[in-house]
Amino acid sequence: MLPLFLALALAPNPAGARPADFPDWLQPHVGTGEGQIAPIVLARARALYQEKQRQGIARNPCYLAMDATRPSTVRDGQPGRRFYVICEAARTFRAVSAGYGSGRKLPGADFSNERQCARHFSNAEGSNLTMGGAYMTAETRTSFKGYYDDSGQTRAFHRTFLLFDGEGETRNARERAIGGHPAMFVRWQCRLRSPDSPHADPDGYVPFGKLVNYTGGRSNGCTTWSGSVSQDIISLVEGNPTSLYIYPESRDIDAVAGAVRSGIPPSGAELSGAELSEAGRYWNSACLAAIGAPKFWPKRILQPVIDRWRQSLPERRPLALPICQ
């Protein structure tokens, strides 16, 4: 009998992805190394983009992809690159860092993710989890998030949010307010007197705090990028939507979890990129070793848990910040 990991590697590949299937210029970027894209992720991202092109929905020369099985940081401590911008006409490939959903720890259900590797995934509203599958980029919305100190200068922070439209398991992306934005927010600390500000409250105060950068970390389920990368991506797709494919989908998560239960080595057996693609059961080996096995929480199971938790919360009083000194 073949060892389980070898039998898994020889199983039919639903994506049919082989490095030879991709253009020559792209092949050096295909694999499981840092800065590369796994074959199955690229194959599905290309297939989605080509479908949207045929439908006349995507006219952008570039498309996007994300591999949420990869770690947040790599060996040198830098953010891990798991989001991809691919422009085949221009023959450009860019791999950048991106955040994934943090999840929650609620009474009766702990679906929280650690900072390094994502274990839990879901499309339940309020889960704060990533949901793999097919998306299209949509419109942008820019909102005021507060004031902060920048080397002695008080500045307003406005964050642009790129909405995603999903289909299939991701079709509730709008309901979940899922999209992409800079991994930055203002942690409010006090109310600053600024009566001339367009954001001042009736008493002439604005929220003031510390600008927090969480590039490569966790989010509320959205895709988050560094400030400069966000500008590049939003400029690329604003008014010219394109496809985004996020891996893994529920079928991938369930398949990998089932393989682990059946005895596949937790390390992921360190298969090559081609073998992983052949298996149709890809997961980043470092993160598989860290999480043991991934878990997908179907909306029908997790949504009632979240709704009960929300109903149990006491009524919150309006936030009353102290006045800045």
From TrEMBL:
Residues making up the signal peptide according to the UniProt record: 1-17
Keywords, alphabetical: Signal
Listed name of the protein: YkuD domain-containing protein
Keyword Signal: yes
Domain of life: Bacteria
